[in-house]
Specification:
InterPro entries: DEAD/DEAH_box_helicase_dom (IPR011545), Helicase_ATP-bd (IPR014001), Helicase_C-like (IPR001650), P-loop_NTPase (IPR027417), RNA-helicase_DEAD-box_CS (IPR000629), SPB4-like_CTE (IPR025313)
Distance between the termini: 126 Å
Radius of gyration: 47 Å
Structural class: alpha/beta
CATH topology of the domain at 37-261: Rossmann fold
Function: RNA helicase.
Helix content: 40-55%
Domain Helicase C-terminal: 286-445
Number of strands: 18
EC number: 3.6.4.13
CATH class of the domain at 37-261: Alpha Beta
GO molecular function: ATP binding; hydrolase activity; RNA binding; RNA helicase activity
Shape: flat
Number of helices: 32
Largest sheet: 7 strands, parallel
Length: 808
């Protein structure tokens, strides 16, 4: 055997073994993955959904990436809804699920989504595989965050599509997504407008909080989205409550669904760890009770529900000014998406805070460790109550909820809750701890017009929310003390609301004018029939009605009383008597007969007889306005229009231009003599002004001459110092050109510009690259000397030429 064959027969001692090629390693890895996937599919097929004895996620046939994500997110034990829903969803069945709030419905559909796409080997090239619809943006964000946590080890691409973000950015990324979490409106917009968005391969559709999606007006959007989707798909519907609309949707979109319900007919729809109470309090005392409750629970995390966003904003701004001692937040649907997300994160991270919110946060949101859920306004139905109180006592933790009911709402609402198997106990408020904030609110609304405007808007929105409720057995608008409620908000009077006319508005509109005018004529004694026939019907035009409109919509009665002066046949005394009971309506009248202690004070309030100020009595609505009228400047408001007055040194008002009487003019002499005298006076005045101007100009020239001499003296001193340095050079002076006897003043006057003439600034010569600051200073000194100095001779020939020129 040749030597080379011997070397090739075996490797040298200490050399590395030969590695397998990469293609072979990839083949082996792919083969192992296929074997694991086949084993996983077999375990799913062998899954027995009827046993329902799965207590942890480790007992379920899950892939390794999903199991690792659940373990890293600290999800181990299964909740009741997850035990029933996840096995059916893994088998590919449609599900209609109902469970209590805080029972873990999110994982009940997210785990099947990841598993079904993983077993189908879903990639980016396959397009959209799962679509998750949420009623609110906050809930969609929360679902997306949970999906990121448990799906961190998968290779799927997931996206969040909600309103409030750039539509173009979403379009660019939409075609590469495998899982989408979205709201119905934005999703339908992309389906209609985004050409690159394909949903033909969709495998799963999930609707979270399906009842809320249908109630919020998304029914048409959801129907349109379902029409775009392929019929062969798996659909999961989850909700805390089941309504008729959800049942109708289930019949349209589900195929042989599995109904999964955690709370049966005999159990309550709310968690057992939730302590539920209600307080009967009148409408004007609601804010007082809420304030007293917050002051007693400063170390708690409180969530307060109101019926409208305008109420949320008013209560937040009012309480923020009064500073209860606990951080305050507010959240409603009119805020921008970034602000809503920021407030949600702040409330989730805080330990002690109070959040005023609408039903935007009533569904599905998981705020950790909420101690109290306060429902300041009665919910529209029992289902809304269940979702609101579900923000606390989540995941078998303790929680407390309090419902504020008006006396007219107590009987109807408690009956609705009993029908839903919800037990609520009545509690009373301790009178000793009750604090009234009506005076503070009235003071703030009086000082701050913006807060008063918010209060008026909150009042109107609350009344409208009660008016549009369908359950009239619970919400009785006619029994509510609206005037007292407006006063409790700090308003001087209840704003006029058009829709309070009720069903009689249409009949009143179509009634004949004679009937309307006769009904509006007055509430006094009825006239006899003969007089009514003899009386002519009053025709009211649209212009009459236009000028009769006062204080409509938002403005209050208090404002109309400030603007309108009701002086028709009534004295000031009767007005004071009639309006004495109104809130913050103290009227006084200042006139010539007003009670003023001294004549000096009366002269401040009223003009003198010879002035042009109107002497009509002035309506004064407050002490503040009375003080303003005592100032001289404020008296300008009482003068006649179109004339301007000035005050002399004694404080008497005069017109700025007063005409002289003809008799006074003739007493001073004939017109020609007065004209000549006037011209002579003006000529003398101009001469005096000319002399004063000449003296000023002479003083300016003298000052400039002195400054110039001072500068020349400084230059001479600098030159003398340079000569002492040993250079041996002397400056040779030459006499001035011109007459010897010429006066220096004349020369200064010749060189300086005339009075009023603008002297242009001397432009500075740009310094060259080889010069420094010392060269600039020397040149400036030579220029200031002018013609008094000659350039120093540089050579011996220059010195001889200069000497010969001087000698002759």
């Amino acid at each position: 055997m040749p030597p080379m064959a011997v070397l090739a027969a075996g490797p040298k001692k200490g050399s590395r073994p030969k590695m397998k090629p990469k293609s072979e390693a990839h083949t082996l890895k792919r083969k192992r993955d296929e074997e694991d996937l086949d084993a996983l599919n077999q375990r799913v097929q062998d899954l027995n959904v009827e046993e329902n004895d799965y207590s942890t996620f480790a007992n379920l046939p899950l892939s390794q990436p999903t199991a690792s994500g659940l373990e890293a997110s600290h999800f181990k034990a299964l909740t009741d809804i997850q035990k029933q829903a996840v096995p059916h969803a893994l088998k590919g069945s449609d599900i209609l699920g109902a469970a209590k709030t805080g029972s873990g419905k999110t994982l009940a559909f997210l785990v099947p989504v990841l598993e079904n796409l993983y077993r189908r080997k879903w990639t980016e090239l396959d397009g959209l595989g799962a679509l998750i619809l949420s009623p609110t943006r906050e809930l969609a964000i929360q679902i997306f965050e949970v999906l990121r946590k448990i799906g961190r080890y998968h290779t799927f691409s997931a996206g969040l599509v909600i309103g409030g973000k750039s539509l173009q950015e979403e379009r660019e990324r939409l075609g590469r997504m495998n899982i989408l979490v979205c709201t119905p409106g934005r999703m339908l917009q992309h389906m209609d407008q985004t050409a690159a968005f394909e949903i033909d391969n969709l495998q799963m559709l999930i609707l979270d909080e399906a009842d809320r999606i249908m109630d919020m007006g998304f029914q048409r959007d959801v129907d349109a989205i379902i029409e775009h989707l392929p019929r062969k798909r798996q659909t999961l519907l989850f909700s805390a409550t089941q309504t008729k609309k959800v049942s109708d949707l289930a019949r349209l979109s589900l195929r042989d669904p599995e109904y999964v319900s955690v709370h049966g007919a005999a159990t309550s729809a709310t968690p057992s760890t939730l302590q539920q109470n209600y307080v009967v309090t009148s409408l004007p005392e609601k804010l007082d009770t809420l304030w007293s409750f917050m002051r007693s629970n400063l170390k708690s995390k409180i969530l307060v529900f109101l019926s409208s966003g305008k109420q949320v904003r008013f209560v937040y701004e009012a309480f923020r000014h009064m500073q209860p001692g606990i951080p305050l937040l507010h959240l409603h649907g009119r805020q921008k998406q970034t602000a809503r997300l920021d407030i949600t994160n702040k409330f989730s991270a805080s330990k002690n805070s109070c959040l005023f919110a609408t039903d935007v946060v009533a569904r599905g949101l998981d705020f950790p460790a909420v101690d109290w859920v306060i429902q300041l306004d009665c919910p529209e139905d029992a289902d809304t109550y269940i979702h609101r109180v579900g923000r606390t006592a989540r995941y078998e933790r303790d929680g407390r909820a309090v419902l504020f009911l008006e006396p007219s709402e107590e009987e109807g609402m408690t009956k609705r809750l009993e029908q839903k198997k919800v037990t609520v106990e009545k509690i009373n408020v301790r009178p000793k701890k009750q604090q009234s904030i009506k005076n503070q609110l009235q003071n703030m609304c009086f000082k701050d017009p913006e807060l008063k405007y918010l209060g008026q808007k909150a009042f109107v929105s609350y009344v409208r929310s009660i008016h549009i409720q369908k359950d009239k057995e619970v919400f009785k608008l006619t029994e509510l003390p609206l005037e007292e409620f407006s006063a409790s908000l700090g308003l001087p009077g209840g704003p006029k609301i058009k829709f309070l006319k009720g069903d009689s508005a249409k009949s009143l509109k179509n009634a004949p004018r004679e009937a309307v005018s006769s009904s509006e004529e007055g509430d006094g004694d009825a006239a006899p029939i003969g007089e009514a026939k003899a009386r002519k019907p009053v025709t009211r035009t649209k212009y009459d009605r236009m000028f009769e409109r006062t204080n409509q919509g938002i403005l209050t009665d208090h404002y109309s009383k400030l603007v309108n002066n009701d002086d028709q046949g009534q004295s000031s005394d009767t007005n004071d008597v009639d309006e004495g009971n109104d809130f913050l309506s103290v009227k006084r009248r200042l006139s010539n007969a007003s009670s003023v202690d001294s004549e000096a004070d009366e002269s401040l309030l009223l003009p003198k007889p010879d002035s042009t100020i109107s002497k009509t009595p002035v309506n004064v609505d407050s002490k503040r306005k009375e003080k303003l009228l005592k100032s001289k400047k404020k008296l300008l408001k009482l003068k006649e229009r179109g004339k301007k007055i000035v005050f002399d040194e004694e404080g008497n008002p005069h017109q700025i231009y007063e005409l002289e009487d003809e008799d006074q003019f003739k007493r001073r002499g004939p017109a020609d003599a007065q004209k000549a005298e006037f011209l002579q006076e003006e000529q003398a005045r101009l001469q005096m002004a000319d002399l004063a101007d000449k003296q000023v100009a002479k003083a300016q020239r003298k000052e400039k001459r002195e400054k110039r001499k001072a500068r020349e003296a400084e230059v001479d001193e600098d030159d003398a110092a340079e000569d002492d340095d040993g250079e041996g050079r002397q400056a040779i002076l030459v006499p001035f050109e011109g007459d010897v006897g010429e006066d220096l003043d004349a020369l200064d006057a010749r060189d300086e510009p005339e009075a009023g003439e603008r002297q242009e600034p001397v432009k500075k010569r740009p310094r060259k690259w080889f010069e420094d600051d010392s060269d600039d200073e020397k040149q400036s000194k030579r220029k200031r000397k002018g013609k008094d100095e000659v350039q120093e001779p540089e050579t011996l020939e220059d010195l001889e030429a200069m000497a010969s020129g001087l000698l002759g």
